[in-house]
Amino acid sequence: MSTQGSEHSEAVLCSRCFNDQGLKLDSFRIGFENDAVCPNCGSNDGRKLSRELIARLAHRFFVRGTIHRTEYGGAPVIQFNEHQRTSISAAPGFESDLKLFEKTLGVGFFHYGPLLWMVGQVEPLKALQEIGTRAAVISRIVAEYPQRELPKAELFYRVRRNPSDPSSPMEYDSPPKHLAGKHRLDSVDFPVLYGSQDLEVCVHECRVTVDDEVFVATLGPLRPLRLLDLTVVLQEGVTEFESLDITVHMLFLAGEHSYEISRAIAIAGLRAGYDGLIYPSYFSLVRSGAIPFETAYGLSIRIIPQFAAYAESQAIPNLALFGRPIEQGVAEVRCINKLVLNRVEYDLLFGPVGYV
Fold it and tell me: What is the pLDDT of residue 8?
């Protein structure tokens, strides 16, 4: 029996129409089953693609598949629309696939010139990178982001790899001094306990491998904790180039080169009387499947009020509690379990190479 998804119109291509293996695999994944003969290649066993699905496939492959991450931010290298002719040259063997997209969608593919804010040219972010102007921006962060209370009844997780005594609650406190200063928020004399209410993010953050003995502690506060929440979307009424919200968003999606700045924010939070921070996980995008630095109507979704809840959902919150909360009686271990990696799955996309 032929089947066709409700979102699909008439099939015009199928997964057998492409030469590139990445396109074959991705089109098979998003295509729909239909035993009719493909009007393009004549195959009857490929997954069928409507024009709408072909446009989706093109965006996944050419736009998401070419996103280039910069020191802060990032943007796709290729875009397409119906107003421009193709100006990229395909790698050998890929010309027929590119022409198939052009013909079917009536579009052209071209090198994308991103708005500069997308690649980190945001004024507060630039100021954070300079020692002389950093403090003023950090003061704004502490003042403008909201407080959230973590009540005694709320739980969170802390994962450890290969602890020497996995049954000891103290193994799940902040790392010992000889390991301090190696992570995003802690310094040599400033220990931090890292945790999350998302257990899978804890596993990612700990870079767990199948060779590790992994344990997870379930923790809870012994008193309500006052936390600075850096995961919210600020409604500022400014452009992306002036946005403190985009600054913080890009900062916590950046790599180790950003740690000096985030550590200074943590220390400022302590001085302001906070017990810790709620901050976006570095793995937020791969956990949520979100598009990095997503735009709508040419604007960041983070400055459009109607998209605020959607943008916030893309940030997976982590917890950072200052000091040694277990030793100091601020938090307690309520349960310890061995954690077994039973199965790992990947949600993969593909992109082109060799284009100029």
Answer: 56
The answer for residues whose C-beta is within 8 angstroms of residue 328's C-beta and 6 or more apart is none
Residues of the chain falling short of pLDDT 50 = 1-6
With the C-alpha atoms ordered 87, 88, 92, 97, is the resulting torsion angle positive or negative?
A: negative
CB atoms within 10 A of CB 70: 15
Q: Tell me the Ramachandran region of residue 28: left when phi exceeds 0, alpha when psi lies from -120 to 50, beta otherwise.
A: alpha
Q: Which secondary-structure segment (H or E) carries 327?
A: none
> pLDDT of 22-68, one tens digit each?
999 999 999 999 989 999 999 989 999 999 999 999 999 999 999 99
Number of helical (H) and strand (E) elements in the chain, helices listed first: 10, 16
3-state secondary structure of 338: strand
pLDDT at 92: 85
Nearest to 65 by CA among 116, 117, 26, 14: 26
pTM for the structure as a whole: 0.91
169 and 304: one domain? yes
Measured between alpha carbons, how far is residue 253 from residues 79, 110, 343 in Å? 23, 27, 26
Q: Are residues 92 and 128 in the same domain?
A: no
Confidence at residue 182, expressed as pLDDT on a 0 to 100 scale: 85
Report the 10 Å Cβ neighbour count for 168.
13
Q: Same domain for 106 and 252?
A: no
Residues 174, 94: one domain? no
Distances in Å between the alpha carbon of 123 and those of 70, 74, 119, 159, 290?
16, 16, 12, 37, 25
Instruction: Report pLDDT for 135.
Output: 98
**Straight-line distance from the first to the last Cα atom of the chain, in angstroms, rounded to the nearest whole number:** 44
DSSP track, 22-77:
HHHHHHHHHSB---SPPTTT--SSSPEEEHHHHHHHHIIIIIGGGEEE-SS-EEES
**Residue 154 counted as domain residue:** yes
Q: pLDDT value at position 90?
A: 86
DSSP 178: G
Place of tokens 């735009």: 295
Residues 36 and 53 in one domain: yes
